[in-house]
């Protein structure tokens, strides 16, 4: 996959935006359990009281708290609060909120409510608030006070005078005794440091708020609604961000697939026959479609999950540890089980994924062969055999997929079992901690959600790594095509053709051997073809006729010697410049799906309708094209399957005539024509190619005999060059061919 990185570069902005949105998604999703924890812990259990620093205190309560503090702490605390007297001008604006102002002065917290300030004052006031609450309970509910402070609290409740508060008691104590008592109280409450002490302080603040007259139901409702609104807003942000990620991931992956397909197609278009020998047509189709789709899918998943899953896993662990540091082992246990299971699954399915693409290649190959050769299959009554052959390939793909499916089918139940087991374990362990007051219920619920998010992150990441091997195999198969070095290349410094091209072709001691072949198929070929001259190439089957003319447009390159166009070695020209000078009608008249007009436009893209009509009249196809109701817009099926062999050949010749090049090659293009049509076509075409260099590959002596020169090939060697009459006398090979085709009267 890394080797395909150049295709990702144009879309770095999309990937960056998607990555930023993924971070927002992860952050939003991880914030939701914390909001739930706040609603349960603070909104429900603590009536909306968020911290242990009271926003308002009665003067009597502040005096009691100050009595338990050192002089330095007293100074810091009094500076943080503002006194509001019952009859003061400020009292009217607070009276509705704090009804106790009618009879008693209150202190309002005035320091900025930053997290640092709250944390500092919470640590300062927690113990005094708890002791104050306990001492106030002693008068009415001594048993509850003992439960709050413990039986070993270093103070004898029975010694308290009736009707005296803690401030009065401490004021009557000697300084040394009061300091000793404060130290003992601090030592006793030291064991309550942390969550328990903070909860006790918040309880004390809640009692104070009730005493002040604050509507606690309203306060609780406002807190829950505010936190719930934040939670909904965070959910909306997560949804919008997730949609944005999917949008950019889809745009990037589809654009990437488009570019890769275009690059593969462009590369294949530059292939010579040598490169096509390394890749079957079915394999190239699979690589351009299925393999690209695999890369597209893994790219989409990578953008969606490759960043989000690790982030959710890591940050989820951090947040879970913040809720309960001593429960880390429950998540670690589940992660270890999942990782081991994923490694097992990964090792089982990876080989099958790698085999999948080769099996699909085979299936496509058989399908394509049968569709292309359906007439041959029917003619030989091989439908049953081909059905069995296709069924076997289909069964191989199905069996491979079943193996993958059977293995992957264990993932969901095992994942469900692990997740359910983790939930039960977290509830069991967390319940004990809640009972010991070392963990709150909301934190337990949040911890459970974080655990599920962490496991889901690992699950998503594992799914990504399970499909990654198949995509990596597909990427390698694509790169095999893109990295294939072409045998036929343009020169680094090509020669520019003159404006006027005569079209003189000359072979200079040319040898040719197919790539990977053991011996040459053409040997020491030398001849010259002049403009205005028709050169026929004749010989027995397999003698090298088509190979010879295929060297002209550099469909292959010579192994030895050279071929020149107007004295210029064709290897010194760009392939585009060379092929622009050649009109080619292949042996197999291949047509493209579309219309007659679109097929003729291949020869000349800006051709007029008059030029097209002239070409089809010369090529003797006007009888069935112009007689059709659609005329030039007559539909042509894929590969011209709705036309006969002769009609396809004539349309192929018309397409070549449209180009009007200096050099024409007709590679056995008249083989499917009857003699009458052949003669009419030759008569009509002669004026148009009068000043051109024309090559006609044929097996018919009747076609070759009127040519300006005839090249006779035998087993890859040029055994005769000349006119028909001369060759009949001097070339035994030609004479044997002629005698096998023509009667004595025709030869005379």
General description of the model:
The protein has 748 residues and is an alpha/beta fold. Among the domains are: 501-510 and 520-581 and 667-748, Rossmann fold (3-Layer(aba) Sandwich); 589-660, 3-Layer(aba) Sandwich (Rossmann fold), CATH 3.40.50. The two termini are 71 Å apart. 32% of the residues are buried. The model has no long low-confidence stretch (mean pLDDT 84).
Describe the structure concisely for a colleague.
The chain is an alpha/beta fold. 61% of the residues lie in helices and 9% in strands.
**Whole-number radius of gyration?**
46 Å
Strand content: 5-15%
Name of the CATH first level of the domain at 501-510 and 520-581 and 667-748: Alpha Beta
Q: Structural class of the secondary structure composition?
A: alpha/beta
Provide the CATH topology of the domain at 501-510 and 520-581 and 667-748.
Answer: Rossmann fold
Biggest sheet, spatial arrangement of strands = 9-12-13-6-14-15
Question: Could you list some keywords that capture this structure?
Answer:
single chain, 748 residues, Rossmann fold, 6-stranded mixed β-sheet, 29 helices
């Amino acid at each position: 996959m890394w080797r395909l990185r150049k295709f990702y570069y144009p879309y770095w902005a999309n990937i960056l935006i998607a990555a930023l949105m993924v971070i927002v998604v992860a952050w939003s999703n991880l914030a939701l359990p914390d909001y739930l924890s706040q609603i349960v812990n603070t909104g429900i259990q603590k009536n909306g009281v968020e911290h242990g620093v009271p926003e308002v205190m009665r003067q009597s309560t502040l005096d009691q708290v100050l009595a338990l503090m050192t002089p330095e702490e007293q100074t810091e605390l009094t500076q943080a609060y503002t006194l509001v007297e019952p009859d003061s001008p400020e009292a009217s604006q607070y009276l509705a909120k704090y009804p106790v102002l009618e009879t008693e002065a209150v202190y309002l917290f005035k320091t900025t409510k930053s997290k640092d300030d709250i944390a500092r004052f919470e640590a300062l006031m927690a113990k005094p608030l708890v002791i104050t609450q306990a001492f106030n309970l002693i008068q009415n509910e001594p048993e509850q006070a003992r439960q709050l402070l413990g039986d070993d609290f270093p103070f004898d409740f029975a010694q308290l005078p009736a009707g005296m508060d803690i401030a009065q008691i401490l004021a009557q104590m000697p300084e040394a005794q009061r300091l000793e008592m404060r130290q003992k109280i601090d030592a006793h409450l030291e064991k309550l440091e942390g969550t328990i002490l903070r909860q006790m302080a918040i309880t004390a603040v809640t009692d104070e708020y009730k005493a002040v007259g604050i509507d606690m139901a309203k306060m609780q409702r406002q807190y829950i609604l505010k936190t719930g609104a934040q939670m909904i807003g965070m959910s909306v942000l997560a949804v919008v961000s997730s949609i944005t990620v999917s949008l950019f991931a889809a745009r990037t992956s589809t654009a990437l697939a488009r570019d890769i397909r275009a690059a593969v197609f462009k590369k294949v278009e530059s292939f010579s026959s040598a490169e096509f020998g390394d890749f079957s047509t079915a394999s190239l189709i699979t690589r351009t479609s299925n393999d690209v789709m695999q890369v597209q899918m893994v790219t989409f998943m990578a953008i969606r999950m490759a960043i989000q899953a690790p982030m959710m896993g890591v940050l989820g662990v951090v947040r879970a540890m913040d809720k309960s540091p001593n429960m880390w082992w429950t998540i670690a246990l589940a992660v270890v089980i999942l990782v081991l299971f994923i490694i097992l699954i990964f090792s089982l399915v990876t080989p099958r994924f790698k085999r999948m693409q080769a099996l699909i290649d085979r299936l496509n190959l058989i399908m394509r062969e049968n569709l292309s050769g359906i007439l041959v299959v029917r003619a030989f009554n091989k439908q049953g055999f081909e059905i069995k052959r296709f069924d076997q390939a289909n069964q191989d793909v199905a069996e491979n997929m079943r193996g993958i499916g059977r293995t992957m089918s264990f993932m969901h139940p095992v994942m469900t079992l692990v997740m359910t087991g983790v939930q039960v374990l977290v509830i069991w362990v967390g319940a004990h901690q809640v009972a010991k007051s070392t963990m709150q219920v909301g934190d337990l619920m949040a911890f459970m959600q974080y655990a599920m998010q962490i496991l889901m992150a690992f699950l998503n990441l594992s799914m990504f790594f399970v499909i990654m091997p198949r995509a990596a195999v597909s990427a390698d198969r694509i790169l095999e095509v893109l990295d294939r070095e072409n045998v036929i290349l343009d020169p680094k410094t090509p020669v520019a053709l003159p404006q006027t091209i005569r079209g003189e072709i000359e072979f200079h001691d040319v040898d040719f051997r197919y790539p990977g072949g053991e011996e040459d198929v053409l040997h020491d070929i030398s001849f010259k073809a002049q403009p205005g001259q028709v050169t026929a190439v004749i010989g027995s089957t397999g003698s090298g006729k088509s190979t010879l003319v295929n060297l002209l447009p550099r469909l292959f390159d010579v192994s030895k010697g050279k071929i020149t166009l107007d004295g210029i070695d064709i290897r010194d020209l760009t392939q585009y410049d060379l092929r622009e000078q050649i009109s080619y009608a292949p042996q197999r008249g291949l047509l493209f799906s579309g219309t007659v007009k679109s097929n003729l436009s291949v020869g000349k893209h800006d051709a007029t309708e008059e030029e097209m009509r002239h070409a089809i009249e010369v090529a003797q196809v006007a009888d069935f094209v112009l007689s059709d109701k659609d005329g030039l817009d007559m539909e042509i099926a894929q590969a011209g399957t709705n036309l006969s062999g002769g009609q396809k050949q004539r349309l192929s010749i018309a397409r070549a005539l449209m180009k009007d090049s200096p050099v024409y090659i007709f590679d056995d293009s008249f083989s499917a024509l009857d003699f009458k049509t052949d003669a009419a076509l030759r008569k009509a075409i002669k004026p148009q190619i009068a000043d051109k260099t024309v090559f006609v590959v044929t097996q018919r002596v009747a076609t070759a005999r009127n040519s300006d020169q005839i090249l006779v090939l035998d087993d890859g060697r040029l055994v005769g060059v000349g006119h028909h009459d001369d060759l009949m006398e001097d070339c035994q090979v030609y004479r044997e061919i002629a005698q096998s085709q023509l009667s004595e009267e025709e030869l005379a």
